[in-house]
Amino acid sequence: MGSLLDFFRLEASDHLLLFWVKEILVAVVIFTFFWGLSQVVRYLLTTWVPRLTAFTRTGLDDQILRRITPPTSTLVVFAGLYFAVRSLPLPEKAYLVLSGAVYIIIVIVVTVIIGRGISEILNWYGRKLAERHGVGVDRQIIPPLEKIITIFLVGIALMVILKHFNYDILSVVTALGIGSLAIGLAAKDTLANMISGFTLMVDRPFRIGDRIQLTSGQWGDVADIGLRTTKIKTVDNTLLVIPNSELCNTILINLAFPDVRAKGRVDVGVGYDCNVEEVKRILVDTALGVPEVLHDPAPEAFFVSFGESALNMSLFFWVDDYKSIFPITDRINEQIINRFRANRINIPYPIRTVFLEKGN
Q1: Which of 14-18, 215-219, 240-244 is least confident?
Q2: Residue of 250, 262, 269, 359 whose CA lies nearest to 311
Q3: Do residues 348 and 271 lie in contact, with contact meaning Cβ atoms separated by under 8 Å?
Q4: Smallest Cα–Cα separation from 84: which of 135, 123, 28, 136?
Q5: What DSSP string runs through 135-193?
Q6: 106/112 Cα distance (integer angstroms)
Q7: Could you tell me which residues come within 8 angstroms of residue 134 by beta carbon, excluding any fewer than 6 positions away?
Q8: Going edge to edge, which strands form the sheet with 300-306?
Q9: What is the torsional sign of CA 96, 100, 101, 103?
Q10: For residue 115, which of 72, 74, 161, 146 has the smallest C-alpha distance?
């Protein structure tokens, strides 16, 4: 009787061993198939797909392929591992732990693939911005965008993982929404400045190095455009720090747009006994005598108005760089007064005539 029980026990253990060997072999076959599939995917992405993308005008698709090929083949391998684990008749806890761990790795790999693709697109867009608006623009816009997108992708990945393990995502999203609302109310001014800073970077009303003038009369060269504030270096070598929200909601003059040429103006009054045409000719000739003054557009002189004691004249001229407008204006003023003295053209002082009448 004992030998018969031993025989059945041995027979049962043999059947159990055979069962596990069969299941393990099936899992190994599944994993091997996906491993081979990963090699095929890698070969296609490195050999055949680049031949198709070679016909496109940009190299963006080639750069994206180079970045996503390694994690894509890794994704196929872990997908095979996931299905192999699911095929094994494991205890429930062991199955949940193993399959859950592999699932988390798969979600991470998928997030990395999406992140690398978006990163290449942003870098390509940053280079286009640098070509269009000058070097430095890409370093201002792209890093904040990458951080925001990374946070967004990580949040989605966490929600997908929590959903897989049957956690209540709605409560988590609600808690995050309430927390975000509280933070937004507490830091609304900072958030407004950050959003305005992002708007300034995208809309590009001015660039670093441009000279701008505010409605308050303050003006200077843009030294830095940050997420919260914009720094302007004034002509007296002081730094003006302005919140971005104020710059977005005000009218300003960009002296460097559409190009760096600038128009100067000199106002002068001459006596009523002067020849207006001669004065206009002298003003234009004086401006043309300064080498930095552009001949195209040519300087122009106008008789503007009748003053109380003088004829008001205006000279308009162009220079090739707005930063040189003041020294050139100084040279023109100096030569104008010398030419007026040489041609006996007087610049009258304000004169008032007072008539006194004798009373009876």
Answers
A1: 14-18
A2: 269
A3: yes
A4: 28
A5: TTHHHHHHHHHHHHHHHHHHHHHHHHHHHHTT--HHHHHHHHHHHHHHHHHHTHHHHHH
A6: 10
A7: 207, 208, 209
A8: 262-270, 311-319, 300-306
A9: positive
A10: 146
pLDDT digits (tens, 9 = 90+) for 170-228: 666 666 666 666 655 555 666 676 677 777 776 778 878 888 888 887 888 888 877 77
User: What's the start-to-end Cα distance of the chain, in Å?
Assistant: 163
Helices 169-186 and 188-203: crossing angle, nearest 10°? 90
DSSP 299: P
CA distance 38 to 61: 20
The reported pLDDT for the residue numbered 7 is 44
Give the whole-angstrom CA distance, residue 357 versus residue 360: 9
* Alpha-helical runs (H) found in the chain: 2-43, 49-53, 60-87, 92-133, 137-164, 169-186, 188-203, 244-248, 276-288, 325-342
Give the residue, 240 or 15, on which the prediction is more confident. 240
Task: Report the half-sphere exposure of 136 (CA within 13 A, side-chain side).
Answer: 11
> Closest by alpha carbon to 137, among 245, 29, 225, 12?
225
Q: Report which residue type is found at 134.
A: G
Structure tokens at 329: 């204006």
Q: Which two tokens stand for residue 97?
A: 């732990």
**Quick check: bond before 297 cis, omega within 30?**
yes
Which residue's entry shows tokens 């609304």?
188
Please, what's the largest Cα pairwise distance for the chain? 163
Q: Which domains does the chain have, with CATH numbers?
A: 2-184 (no CATH), 205-254 (2.30.30.60), 262-342 (3.30.70.100)
Residues in the chain: 360
CB 142 within 8 A of CB 123: yes
User: Vertex 140, ends 138 and 146: CA angle to 5°?
Assistant: 80
How far apart CA 122 and CA 120 sit, in angstroms, is: 5
* Mean pLDDT across the chain: 80
Contact (CB, 8 A) for 322 and 255: yes
85: which 2 tokens?
């684990």
